[in-house]
Fold this sequence. Notes:
The protein is mostly helical. The protein contains five helices and two strands. The chain has a domain at 27-88. It has a two-stranded antiparallel sheet with strand order 1-2.
Amino acid sequence: MSKPFERExxxxxxxxxxxxxxxxxxxxxxxDAVAVASEWLAQDGSLRRALARxxxxxxxxxxxWTLFFIGLHDLGKWDARFQLKEMAMRIIIL
Length: 94
C-alpha cells in the first residue's frame, strides 16, 4: 500500500539558497517561475506569437507547452545527489 502524500517531506527539497543558508523550496520555486512566465506571456503578444510560430501551433497551445517546460526547468534538482550538494557545501565551509 502506498503512503499518503507527506507535505513536510515534499517541502524539504530545496531549489535555491541564500548566503545565510535559508532556502526556497523547490516546488515553490518552480511554481513561481511558471507564474512569472505566465504573466510575461499575458503581457507580451509578440513573444506569444513568436512561440506559436516556433512550435507551429496556436498561441494557447504554445503558451501551455512553454509553461509546462518552464515548470520542469529545475527537474534535476529533485535528484538526491543535487539535494546533498548544499549539505556538502556547508560541511566544506565549516
